[in-house]
User: Which sequence fits this backbone?
């Protein structure tokens, strides 16, 4: 009697591997690696965000203009007419010809990535193409990090934030239960969180209601409105300090038990803040967030230690989200939605139910058909099919792959295609048996005859699936993935596995009962 | 059990002209539909917003339409039942870039007096993303076809590759025609289904071609028509059985897989039927019409074999130390 052969051992190995590693996914236990359900199956929010990188470039130029002013003042270079043109160019004029060499050298040394051109004493400064690219890249990288930090701090289970392509951000947040939560998350992501502390122009604020924006500008001021009321404030355009000097922000409560946000400034910020409040006693200072005035308290005394409070008649949840946004920093450039898909948890559960039902029904149909049509040979094919299913689950679990609704469809389809290999093989074996060959020879030749066909057919399907995986997005990738894994797994189970089983049970196959074993009646011996 | 017992080859090639004409007619009809009526692009490719709302009990669809019509922005919106009678889908071409302002929320406000409901899905695709996805879709189809052409040329011969691609284009075109005929909305899942048909139809064709390749080597009579007839007849049982099992599975997906994958499974259903037909009746005759010569193929194979043998001989001599 023939003993176990390497094919059966390999198949048994694959089967055990498949069962062991698919257990965590099947039982949904907390331990071990398991398949993650896609957002379409468990519910959640999927968004593709674009970024207005031109805003990042504009603010980069704004800060360059600030640096130029600082440098020239510091080196006592006299200049005039420093302007930003269309957010892409800075122009200025030097008044003293003797300063030209010094100024040029200074700008070249201190401001990187710019092209300086001169026409007499008139200068213009532009960002180089590389610097523009770098700024854009930086803006998207920073946005990804910031959004990730915000979502992580919000306390959700496993949000995904990743750069997609050159200039898009993919955000996936599973497990959102209510509409209100979703809205909070969207607002948290979108929040620019640009914090500024600004001085109130006490000399002119009385006239603010009749003042135009242009007039305010001419005084070096801006007009901003209160976050809750239509009240207007006239503020000095250059802020005392901004959110970049903030080290921490937490939710607290004021004396009326209203939620407030306490934040702490770093050393430099605390010093600037201390100096400013010391100088401005008796005047007002505005706390401005995203160009809205949250509060404008009177400065009663010099405030040291760098601790500041924002009170703005917040809801508790709003204060909580705002603190997160402040802690994780401002977005260099605003983001906007390019694609958004949100699935409620009940729809996801419905999808799981109906696609599992389809999978089970299809599976049972195929299994019954194979046994009815091929007898024991069909049973062998079914063993391989079960092994195939376990193997797909195990491989997906090990990679922590995501199972989506189209992915389920991919598995269902694999069930149909995986038996194909066995159908081809069984047909070949039957053909040879009809020709009167011995059972052993029929099986061996059947496998070798069928192999090229199965191989070529599987490779071409894999080519299509790979293209689908590379070019597909989101859920479609899931479909391509399960199909590819299914095809590869079927090579082990349907070809090697069943072959091994035949070799193993060959001594028991009764040549007088071919109808039982292979489902055929031979017309006696030829 | 045996349904297709091979006795003698079917005389398929004699009738190949008729099948060819039938296929050409259907493909032209399908193309006419695609060009004339055009695809009904869903939001994935056209951009827009889709909102799926489930009511407790029967959805008051007339009330929903009225409620949405009160806002001018949504006047072009369509409201249809989805799956059962308790669910409706609202579709509009509008999409919003603003993270804070969600069309789902706005619809929820508009619907607040229509009864007890739950918004189960809000999909929004910006117009730019839609056109990008469409480009990617066409790109992926072309790439898949090119990849397959190269592989089949390498494994068989270029005429096999061209015939396989013809059969494939035939299947995909007919499936697209059916999608247009039944006004199925074209979204990403339909693209996936079409690519699956591509793979499936090819799978079927390759298995027939494999048999023809084998037949060329083993059957003495060099008449291609005879070889094709015999090979197709020999694989007929397999082709039909696999198509049947796949058909069962796709049918269960279609019947009980839920409304969301309805379009997907419908497309596959068409694909399985057309794919089976084309691999039996269409792919192989094309091989003949392309002027495939059995003698030429045998010669090429023989020289290939000879070269390999020579190489082996050289290696053997080398290993034996004679060179």
Assistant:
């Amino acid at each position: 009697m023939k003993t176990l052969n390497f094919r059966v051992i390999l198949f048994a190995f694959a089967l055990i591997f498949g069962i062991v590693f698919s257990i965590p996914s099947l039982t949904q236990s907390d331990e071990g690696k398991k398949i993650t359900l896609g957002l379409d199956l468990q519910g959640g929010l999927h968004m593709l965000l674009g970024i207005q990188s031109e805003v990042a470039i504009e603010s980069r130029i704004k800060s360059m203009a600030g640096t130029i002013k600082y440098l020239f003042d510091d080196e006592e270079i006299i200049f005039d007419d420093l302007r930003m043109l269309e957010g892409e160019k800075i122009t200025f004029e030097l008044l003293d010809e003797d300063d030209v060499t010094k100024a040029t050298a200074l700008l070249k040394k201190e401001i990187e990535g710019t092209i300086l051109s001169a026409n007499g004493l008139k200068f213009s400064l532009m960002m180089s193409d590389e610097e523009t690219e770098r700024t854009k890249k930086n803006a998207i990288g920073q946005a990804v990090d910031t959004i990730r930090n915000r979502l992580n701090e919000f306390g959700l289970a496993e949000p995904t934030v990743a750069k997609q392509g050159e200039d898009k951000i993919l955000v996936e947040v599973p497990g959102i239960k209510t509409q209100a939560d979703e809205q909070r998350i969207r607002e948290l992501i979108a929040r620019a969180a640009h914090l500024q502390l600004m001085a109130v122009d006490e000399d002119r604020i009385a006239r603010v209601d009749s003042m135009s924006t242009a007039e305010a500008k001419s005084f070096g001021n801006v007009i901003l409105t209160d976050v809750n009321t239509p009240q207007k404030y006239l503020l000095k355009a250059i802020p005392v300090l901004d959110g970049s000097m903030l080290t921490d922000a937490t939710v607290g409560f004021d004396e009326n038990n209203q939620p407030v946000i306490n934040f702490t400034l770093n050393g430099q910020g605390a010093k600037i803040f201390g100096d400013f409040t010391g100088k401005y006693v008796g005047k007002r200072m505005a706390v401005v967030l995203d160009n809205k005035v949250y509060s404008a308290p009177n400065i009663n005394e010099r405030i040291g230690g760098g601790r500041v409070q924002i009170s703005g008649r917040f809801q508790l949840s709003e204060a909580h989200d705002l603190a997160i946004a402040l802690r994780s920093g401002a977005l260099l450039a605003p983001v906007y939605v390019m694609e958004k898909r949100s699935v409620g948890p009940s729809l996801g559960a419905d999808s799981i139910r109906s696609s599992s039902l389809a999978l089970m029904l299809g599976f049972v149909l195929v299994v019954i058909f194979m046994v009815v049509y091929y007898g024991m040979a069909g049973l062998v094919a079914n063993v391989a099919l079960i092994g195939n299913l376990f193997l797909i689950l195990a491989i997906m679990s090990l990679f922590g792959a995501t199972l989506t609704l189209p992915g389920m469809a991919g598995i269902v389809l694999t069930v149909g295609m995986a038996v194909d290999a066995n159908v081809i093989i069984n047909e070949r074996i039957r053909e040879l048996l009809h020709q009167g060959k011995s059972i052993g020879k029929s099986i061996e030749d059947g496998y070798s005859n069928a192999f090229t066909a199965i191989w070529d057919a599987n490779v071409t399907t894999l080519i299509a699936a790979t293209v689908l995986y590379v070019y597909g997005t989101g859920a479609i990738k899931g479909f391509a993935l399960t199909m590819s894994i299914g095809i590869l797994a079927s090579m082990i189970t349907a070809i090697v596995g069943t072959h091994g089983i035949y070799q193993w049970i060959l001594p028991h196959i009764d040549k007088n009962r071919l109808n039982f074993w292979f489902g055929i009646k031979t017309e006696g011996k030829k | 059990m045996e349904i297709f017992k091979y006795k003698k080859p079917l005389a398929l090639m004699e009738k190949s002209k008729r099948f060819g004409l039938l296929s050409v007619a259907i493909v032209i009809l399908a193309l006419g539909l695609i060009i004339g009526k055009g695809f009904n692009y869903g939001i994935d490719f056209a951009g827009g917003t889709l909102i799926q709302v489930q009511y407790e009990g029967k959805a008051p669809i007339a009330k929903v339409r009225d409620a949405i019509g009160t806002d001018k922005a949504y006047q072009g919106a369509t409201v249809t039942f989805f799956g059962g009678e308790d669910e409706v889908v609202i579709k509009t071409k509008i999409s919003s870039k603003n993270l804070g302002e969600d069309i789902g929320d706005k619809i929820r406000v508009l619907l607040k007096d229509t009864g007890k409901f739950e918004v189960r899905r809000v999909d929004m695709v910006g117009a730019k993303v839609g056109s990008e996805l469409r480009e990617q879709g066409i790109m992926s189809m072309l790439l898949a076809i090119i990849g397959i052409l190269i592989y089949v040329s390498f494994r068989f011969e270029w005429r096999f590759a061209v015939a396989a691609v013809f059969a494939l284009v035939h299947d995909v075109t007919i499936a697209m025609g059916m999608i247009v005929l039944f006004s199925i909305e074209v979204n990403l899942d339909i693209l996936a289904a079409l690519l699956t048909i591509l793979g499936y139809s090819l799978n079927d064709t390759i298995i027939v071609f494999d048999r023809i390749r084998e037949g060329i080597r083993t059957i003495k009579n060099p008449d291609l028509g005879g070889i094709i007839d015999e090979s197709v007849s020999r694989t007929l049982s397999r082709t039909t059985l696999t198509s049947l099992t796949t058909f069962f599975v796709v049918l269960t997906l279609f019947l009980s897989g839920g409304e969301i994958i309805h379009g997907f499974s419908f497309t596959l259903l068409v694909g399985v039927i057309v794919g089976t037909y084309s691999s039996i009746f269409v792919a192989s005759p094309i091989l003949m019409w392309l002027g495939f010569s059995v003698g030429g193929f045998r010669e090429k194979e023989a020289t290939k074999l000879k070269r390999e043998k020579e190489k082996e001989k050289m290696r053997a001599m080398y290993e034996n130390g004679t060179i």
Summary: The longest strand of chain B covers residues 117-125. Chain B is about 65% helix and 10% strand. The CA atoms of residues 58 and 85 of chain B lie 5 Å apart.
